[in-house]
Each structure stands twice: as structure tokens, then as C-alpha cells.
Amino acid sequence: SGAIVAAIVVVVIIVVAGVLILLKMYNRRTRMRRELEPKSPKSPAPPTLDPNSNSSQQPATVTFSPADVHVETR
Fold first, then answer.
1. Which pLDDT does position 36 carry in this prediction?
2. Where exactly are the structural domains of the chain?
3. What are the angstrom distances between the C-alpha of 39 and each of 31, 33, 43, 69?
4. From 57's CA, which of 10, 23, 34, 46 has a CA 20 to 30 Å away?
5. 44-62 in b/e burial notation, b at 16+ Cβ within 10 A?
């Protein structure tokens, strides 16, 4: 019974190691492909603001999600 459990653990470790190696190879290949691609001659320009619009007209809003609020319970 103990030998079966040990064999299963060894197989799981080998499978996880194989998946990690495959992911590392895929990441390396995609990074090389990305770096070897020709760069686009035109970078995306940031959106321009209308000079007639006043930025103070837009109200500043702050929203809190429930994850931001920490309540201490006793």
C-alpha cells in the first residue's frame, strides 16, 4: 500500500516537472519571437484633450470595493 502511494507521488512530481519544463520552453520561444519581430514604425499616440474642455468640470470619484475595506472582528 505504501509503495503504491509512493509511486503515485513520484508520477505526479514527474508530470508537474514536465509541465513546468514545457511552459518554460514555450515562454522562451514566444519571448524570442516577440523580440525578433520588426517594431511598428508608429507608436500609439495618447489621446489628446480638447482645449475647450475644462478638466475641473469632471468630478473626481473614489470607489471602494469590499476587498478594500477591512473590518476587525473579535
1. 87
2. 1-36
3. 14, 12, 9, 44
4. 46
5. eeeeeeeeeeeeeeeeeee
